[in-house]
């Protein structure tokens, strides 16, 4: 029998719980293992007894009897960036809503050995499924090949990629509605799924409006990169026929770009309108406050958790939404 220390340091076990709840140890075991044939009142009484004496469920022990640890593995990379870190938070909330928790392993998404090592670490914890929160398509392929017996889902599914494209198109539509016809772009890394989806949305929207693709720079999502590219963007704005607006692939690069443009004497939005993507918590406090695109990351997380657990399909994530603030205006 597995025992646990309560707040006083005394070891307590299922027999203590059973005695306090007035049930058998078999009933306590069934509650722990989510047996369906337990009356709600009995379940509540057992759970209350567990809480009152400080009994903690041993996840590994429960797995021996149920073939499930109620744990989802998450393989993540670039967690210092806002998008991946927000994705982990959303997945943790979605897992808890499904009465699960997550174990996270970090990997260099561009390094196959790193991804394989992350998978192996998760497998030692007896996870019930894996969700991939990594930027490259090959990462998902590597994980699926390594664990054919474990369900694997991606945070950003095909529908998620579609939502990314739709969001980028919203930014272009907004700029065109203001009167912009020369729209530049600061993209994310070419080998990231999110970057390619957002680029696709920009291209499709420009074509729909009969506009040519403007000047394009490639960044790496970081704020400092936006600042470093600002002199080149400023020079393009000053050139004859230069852009009057720029679609930036994430908020962090947009922040750096706006700061760098200010240092270069280019005012946002009177000389150049700027849009971001993600609507991170600081976007409203940029100067000027950033016009950006908000995705339903929580909805995407619930969908991924349902897929990894084989649960009924969660509702599709909501369509992206443009959040209009002060960084965009009609061209001068």
From TrEMBL:
Q: What is this protein called?
A: DNA-binding LacI/PurR family transcriptional regulator
Annotated SUPFAM superfamilies: lambda repressor-like DNA-binding domains (SSF47413), Periplasmic binding protein-like I (SSF53822)
Fetch the PANTHER family from UniProt. HTH-TYPE TRANSCRIPTIONAL REGULATOR GALS, LACI-RELATED TRANSCRIPTIONAL REPRESSOR
Indicate whether Transcription appears among the record's keywords. yes
Q: Which SMART domains match?
A: HTH_LACI
Write down the Pfam families for this protein, in alphabetical order.
LacI, Peripla_BP_3
Could you tell me which Gene3D superfamilies the record lists for this protein? 3.40.50.2300, lambda repressor-like DNA-binding domains
Instruction: Output one GO MF annotation.
Output: transcription cis-regulatory region binding
Record organism: Microbacterium invictum
The entry's keywords: DNA-binding, Transcription, Transcription regulation
Q: What is the lineage of its organism?
A: Bacteria, Bacillati, Actinomycetota, Actinomycetes, Micrococcales
């Amino acid at each position: 029998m597995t025992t646990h220390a309560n707040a006083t340091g005394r070891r307590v076990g299922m027999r203590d719980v059973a005695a306090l709840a007035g049930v058998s140890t078999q009933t306590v075991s069934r509650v722990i293992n989510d047996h369906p044939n337990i009356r709600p009142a009995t379940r509540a009484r057992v759970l209350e007894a567990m809480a009152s004496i400080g009994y903690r469920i041993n996840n590994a022990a429960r797995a021996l009897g149920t073939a499930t640890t109620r744990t989802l593995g998450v393989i993540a990379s670039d967690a210092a960036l806002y998008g991946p870190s927000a994705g982990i938070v959303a997945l943790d909330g979605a897992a808890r809503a499904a009465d699960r928790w997550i174990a996270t392993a970090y990997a260099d998404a561009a390094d196959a050995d790193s991804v394989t090592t992350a998978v192996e670490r998760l497998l030692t914890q007896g996870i019930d499924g894996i969700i991939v929160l990594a930027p490259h398509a090959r990462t998902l392929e590597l994980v699926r090949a390594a664990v054919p017996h474990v369900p694997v889902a991606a945070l950003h599914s095909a529908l998620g990629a579609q939502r990314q494209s739709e969001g980028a198109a919203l930014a272009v539509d907004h700029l065109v509605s203001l009167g912009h016809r020369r729209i530049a772009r600061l993209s994310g890394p070419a080998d990231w799924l999110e970057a390619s989806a957002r680029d696709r949305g920009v291209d499709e929207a420009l074509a729909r409006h009969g506009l040519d693709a403007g000047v394009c720079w490639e960044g790496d999502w970081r704020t400092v990169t936006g600042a470093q590219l600002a002199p080149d963007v400023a020079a393009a704005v000053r050139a004859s026929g230069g852009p009057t607006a720029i679609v930036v692939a994430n908020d962090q690069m947009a922040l750096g770009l706006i700061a760098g443009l200010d240092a270069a004497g280019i005012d946002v939005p009177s000389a150049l309108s700027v849009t971001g993507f993600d609507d991170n918590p600081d976007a409203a406090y940029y100067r000027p406050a950033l016009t950006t695109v908000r995705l339903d990351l929580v909805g995407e997380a619930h969908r991924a958790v349902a897929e990894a657990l084989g649960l009924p399909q969660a509702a599709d994530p909501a369509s992206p939404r443009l959040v209009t603030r002060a960084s965009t205006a009609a061209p001068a």
